Amino acid sequence: MKFTTKRKKEILDKVNFNKEYSINEAVDIIKDLKALNFDETIEIAINLGVDPRHADQNIRVTSSLPNGSGKKVKILVLSNESDIKKSIDAGADYAGNDDFLQKLESGWSDIDTIVAHPSIMPKLGKLGKILGPKGLMPNPKSGTVSSNVVNSVKDIKSGRIELRVDKNGIVHAPIGKKSFPSKHLVENYNSVLKTISGSKPPSFKGTFLKKITISSTMGPGLKIERVVV
Fold first, then answer.
1. pLDDT 10s digits, 65-88
2. What fold characterizes domain 17-68+160-223?
3. Gap between the Cα atoms of 132 and 134, Å rounded
4. In angstroms, rounded to a whole number, what is the distance separating the alpha carbons of residues 77 and 94?
5. Cα(33)–Cα(224) distance, rounded to whole angstroms?
6. Which helix (H) or strand (E) holds 128?
7. Which CATH architecture is the domain 75-157 placed in?
8. Alpha carbon 3 to chain centroid, angstroms
9. Rounded to whole angstroms, what are the CA distances from 54 to 57, 185, 196?
């Protein structure tokens, strides 16, 4: 005899896995599912028709979430002495140069993002084998290598995120928390989708947006209509 949990039964009753929902319908369904004992993250997965092995199809861009992601992002700024206090005032959690380079080399990584001034990159580049696997190496494409580190910190704290295609051609991105108003989740979704749609390589032939799904941390994936607003 097969046993179905109450949560699974609720999902099966409310979700049609063969249907492509509008983003508004999908958000309403996800928010209507019984809440768990934590505020789930809402994430989208965008399957692209690209082959990331080709340099021009290895999508890596930034997008703004108008309503933020709901996650506190820990930022380390590596820059000149004159930027340290200004970076902290702008919202950076840590700021410095050689002292933090030594900490990073020793394995410290209690951060989510590193923002670096171009003058620091020659020193930081030597730590590529340590930072690369952790996804912490700054990159101009993600806006984390900047001559204006203060503005970069403000942008990240206000909701800028990096969108990067994985080896399977999929872009994963958070668009907020389940507790967000539906309108805010939809606005964040539209912002990300517009950015991805605008990143289509000029030479690309074929279907760029192949499939879009949205889900909560512990919830089902709902297929979304491929409509760019």
1. 999 999 889 999 999 999 999 999
2. Ribulose 1,5 Bisphosphate Carboxylase/Oxygenase (3.30.190)
3. 5
4. 6
5. 17
6. helix 128-131
7. 3-Layer(aba) Sandwich (3.40)
8. 36
9. 5, 32, 17
